[in-house]
Structure prediction request, 253 residues.
Amino acid sequence: MVIGQGQFEALLVAGKPVEHADLSAIDWSDLAEGGLVARLCVLADALMGDAELAGARFEDCTFSRCRFAGTNLTDAVFLRCAFFDSETRTGCSFSRADLNGASFENCNLATCSFEFAELFDVTIRNCKAAGADFGNARFGKPIGGKAGVSRATFIGSMLDLANFEKAGLADCILTECSLRQTDFTQAVLSSADLRGSDLSEANLDGVILDNADLREAILFGIDVTRLTSFEGIKVSSDQLSDIVRAIGIKVFP
Prediction:
């Protein structure tokens, strides 16, 4: 069902959910204030621009080739949403969007772009995000004009071949994730929690891994000699052979 602008805004102002609607033609600029709740809706080729959608909630929605460039999505919630277009094999763009405090759960984010997005305290749980691009995304929150703490949570998600080049992920959580062949070149992962994740053949060139927790993680193909530093990392005893193989040490029972 295609919904008109007037009907859409009336539902928004009344605080009523928008359900089973095609929202592709909606003008997202200068919307009336109200907490948007959208269920089972479709958006195709939508340009969200500088839309103010803080605190919005999307459930079981399908987004095809949509662009959220500059959109305010702070504290937004996405449940069981699809952002990957199977026909063009492309994901949506969240480039420069404000996603601080946003959460994605059971979503398909494959090949989506988060370049230059604000991602402090973002949560991505049980999502498919293979090939997603987090290049130049900001997981930290500046304090007094200086770099502050970083906070992000990735749990149980597929992030194979994703790009986290130069990402500031210190103290962040990336547990039980598939990170096979993921690019972490020159990323900061100090004190990050990577327990139970699969880092097979991930690119860790120039990574700072000090005090990171790698217990129960799969480390096949990891070359610690290419790390910038890894002082104080936590590993399980059965991981030692993978860790020290690159420096010529053999571990025996």
The chain has a mean pLDDT of 90. Residues 12 and 149 are 35 Å apart (CA to CA).
